[in-house]
Amino acid sequence: MDNSELLPYLGLMRKAGSLVCGAEDVSAACLGGKGRVALLARDASNHTVRWIGESCEHKQVPILTLDCDKNDLGGALGIGECAAAAVCDTGFALSLAKKLALPELIAQLEQRAAREKKRKAKKLAGKGKTDTSKRGKNV
User: Fold this and answer.
1) In terms of DSSP H, where are the helices of 1-139?
2) pLDDT digits 0-9 by tens, 91-136
């Protein structure tokens, strides 16, 4: 997949509130257990790469280095420059992995999505609800 298809998709994730930008926010998201996939621009500084790497290693968050520079990534996200970003939604992260054709990451994220769905269904069952959508209807 080339950047002309990938970068607008990342912009959509940011507008949906499922992507955080900047090394500090990415590190906090990964350490806080919210980050699903960390993304780095190819020209990110060594300090940023090391910082994000340590944060992601702690919580076993996969890191992808994109084939775009900080200006391209930042432009797609609506900011000046961005060396690092993190996808915080499992569905978006799974979709991104499928677009990039990364089978190992796809399998890992599918397992996580299944666990999240099971956990959500169990939580709703305790409240007497069976509908797992966000509509809030009792079925």
Assistant:
1) 3-15, 23-31, 46-59, 70-77, 90-99, 103-126
2) 999 999 999 999 999 999 999 999 999 998 888 887 776 666 666 6
The C-alpha angle 41, 45, 46, rounded to 5 degrees, equals: 115
Q: What is the CATH number of the domain that holds 82?
A: 3.30.1330.30
Residues 16-65 have pLDDT tens digits of 999 999 999 999 999 999 999 999 999 999 999 999 999 999 899 999 99
Based on the structure, what is the number of domains in the chain? 1
What are phi and psi for residue 61, nearest 5 degrees? -90, 125
- 100-87-17 Cα angle (round to 5): 125
**Any domain includes 20:** yes
| Segments forming the whole domain that contains residue 8 | 3-104
State how far the Cα of 68 lies from the Cα of 58, in Å rounded to an integer.
26
Residue 123 lies in a domain: no
Find where tokens 């200006």 sit: 71
Q: Examine residue 65 and state whether it is found in any structural domain, yes or no.
A: yes
